[in-house]
Write a structure and sequence with these properties.
The protein is of the alpha/beta class and 246 residues long. α1 links the parallel β1 and β2. The protein is 45% helix and 15% strand. It has a seven-stranded parallel beta sheet, with helices on both faces.
Length: 246
């Protein structure tokens, strides 16, 4: 059953990877979209494709979720046309791959500012309006790294443990309302993620996935869509997903 047709979804990190896959998947379900990312040209191309293919309304905005003023400004524009029914906090990244004693603190700032503070900025801009309306559904993109740590990923792990904690705590804050929150925590997903982590070294990124079949962004988008399609009395708080090979 399609319970989300005709709704409006805001997706951050929509220009590539899981965010882009979610845009395609939700548009196919008849969901109207607001797409945020830093790369405006990619967003415009994606919006044109989705509108032509699925006939949904698509608005775009070039937004860096690390910039609270930019988030608030873009949210103000979006909210003039109505409160999103769905918020997908997909924007996130890993930067660097080194032991804590050797890591670059600038990489730490990028991860914490994007994965934690950026998620909070966007949520804070949209959630009060969902609460006032007494309906809405938020899905945060977490990671298996928010459940299991690994070497040379301390701060990325910490940022994704934070996403898990925020999802759980926000769910408690929302008790007594009809607003729902969930997190989806995938393992290896082949996307631009590793390329970003390794500062654009595509060859090194490709080696991460050699010898096994990882998840695809579309796999994650399918699970997110399943969560969104649940009846209002059902809240799927957390899903951990991995490829069969992991």
């Amino acid at each position: 059953m399609n319970r989300i047709k005709g709704t409006l979804a805001l997706i951050t990190g929509a220009s590539a990877g899981i965010g882009c896959a979610c845009a395609h998947r939700l548009a196919a379900e008849g969901v109207h979209l607001a797409l945020w990312a830093r790369r405006d040209e990619r967003l415009r191309e994606l919006a044109a494709e989705l509108t032509a293919t699925h006939g949904v309304r698509v608005a775009t905005a070039s937004v860096d979720v690390r910039d609270r003023q930019a988030v608030d400004a873009a949210a103000g524009v979006l909210l003039k046309d109505g409160v999103p029914d769905i918020l997908l906090n997909i924007a996130g990244l890993a930067a660097g791959f080194a032991k804590t004693q050797d890591a670059d603190p600038d990489d730490w700032d990028r991860m914490i500012d994007t994965n934690v503070k950026g998620l909070l900025y966007v949520t804070r801009a949209i959630l009060p309006h969902m609460v006032t309306r007494n309906s809405g559904h938020i899905v945060n993109l977490g990671s298996l790294a928010g459940h299991q740590v690994y070497p040379m990923g301390a701060v990325y792990n910490a940022s994704k443990f934070a996403v898990k904690a925020l999802t759980d705590a926000i769910s408690m804050d929302l008790l007594g309302t009809r607003v729902r929150v969930a997190s989806v925590d995938p393992g290896h997903v082949e996307s631009e993620f590793a390329v970003v982590r390794f500062a654009g070294d595509a060859a090194r990124a490709k080696k991460v996935y050699e010898g096994f079949a990882p998840l695809t962004p579309a796999d994650v988008a399918d699970v997110i869509t399943y969560i969104l399609n649940q009846p209002e009395n059902v809240n799927i708080l957390d899903v951990v997903m991995m490829s069969t090979a992991q």
